[in-house]
Design brief:
This protein has about 290 residues and is of the alpha/beta class. It contains 11 helices and 13 strands. The strands form 3 sheets. It has a 6-stranded mixed beta sheet with strand order 10-9-8-13-11-12, with helices on both faces. A 4-stranded parallel beta sheet has the order 2-1-6-7, sandwiched between helices. Strand 3 and strand 4 form a beta hairpin. The mean pLDDT is about 95.
């Protein structure tokens, strides 16, 4: 039986160390800022995460780019040429064309590698929600699941990866067309913070509002309490837009309520952070439904 690797893209927001430990191949998305193009490497090699957020806070703007078909072909060809198959878990197709690029690249390589397999899964996840799905799949692979068995596991599991997040500055969501200018203005004046999630189709949806920052952070944990399948023992990921203190506040509340200490924190990478902004805190766990 041929060996296979799990591939994903940098919107998974895993730490570089964890991705290496899990043996994950990570393809970077890109952003352009100040006339220069940066790859969104997990280790911040092109642009350090703190530097990115400092520049955004200072008023700089950036544009982001999906992974190209050519980049996928280059990465996939190198793996297939070694006799190794690929399971690629993509950033949500509702938020990027990266998934479509991977599908085209995989199709184009079939003739060149007739004995090889590239299976592509639209995770419909983002940030460490995507990272959590990748983490769970890596654990299943280590336990002996086959390529097609792991593809089926990913498809069955992705609808249970819960994404709950809040933002500190509504203007980033306004620029991205997620909320109206009027909503951003009134919300900023009244210190109203939205509580959002990623739905079953992989889209960002505003669900409720909280009055003040701490209330919005506690609302994330309330959502976990309502739907988590194993709040006490399940793996929990938290990503943040350069506001580690607030992410730690959420982690401490999870430990206080449920006793859970299997909690991992990391930055929201610059590609997603360009749209969500500094001050974003996002909570991810396995639940009964999204």
């Amino acid at each position: 039986m041929r060996d296979f690797v799990i591939m994903t893209d940098s919107c998974c927001d895993l730490t570089d160390e964890m991705a290496r430990e899990l043996g994950i191949v990570v393809v970077p998305l890109s952003l352009e800022m100040g006339g220069r193009t940066y790859r969104n490497w997990l280790d911040g090699g092109d642009i350090a995460f703190q530097d990115f957020y400092s520049r955004i806070r200072a008023g700089e703007t950036a544009t982001t780019s999906a992974v190209s078909v050519g980049d996928f072909q280059e990465q996939m060809r190198a793996i297939l040429s070694q006799g190794t198959d690929i399971l690629y878990l993509s950033f949500s197709s509702a938020l990027s064309t990266t998934y479509q690029s991977a599908v085209i690249a995989a199709e184009d390589l079939r003739e060149e590698f007739p004995d090889g397999q590239v299976l592509v899964v639209d995770s419909r996840c983002a940030s460490l929600g995507q990272g959590l799905l990748v983490y769970l799949c890596a654990r299943e692979k280590a336990a002996g699941r086959s390529l097609t068995g792991l593809r089926d596991y990913a498809e069955a599991t992705k609808g249970h990866i819960c994404h709950w997040f809040t933002v500190d500055d509504l203007n980033h969501l306004k620029r991205g067309g997620r909320i109206s200018a009027a909503t951003a203005l009134v919300g900023t004046m009244l210190s109203i913070k939205p509580v959002l999630h990623v739905d079953d189709e992989g889209r960002l949806i505003s669900v409720s509002k909280a009055r003040g920052r701490k209330a919005s952070l506690m609302a994330l944990v309330d959502r976990m309490e309502a739907t988590a399948l194993d709040a006490a023992n399940g793996t929990v990921f938290i990503s943040h837009g350069d506001c580690e203190g607030d992410a730690l506040l959420v982690a401490d509340e999870i430990t206080r309520r449920f006793g859970n200490r299997d909690i991992h924190l990391n930055y929201v990478g610059p590609v997603i952070g360009n749209h969500s902004g500094p001050g974003t805190v996002a909570l991810f766990f396995v639940g009964s439904k999204r």
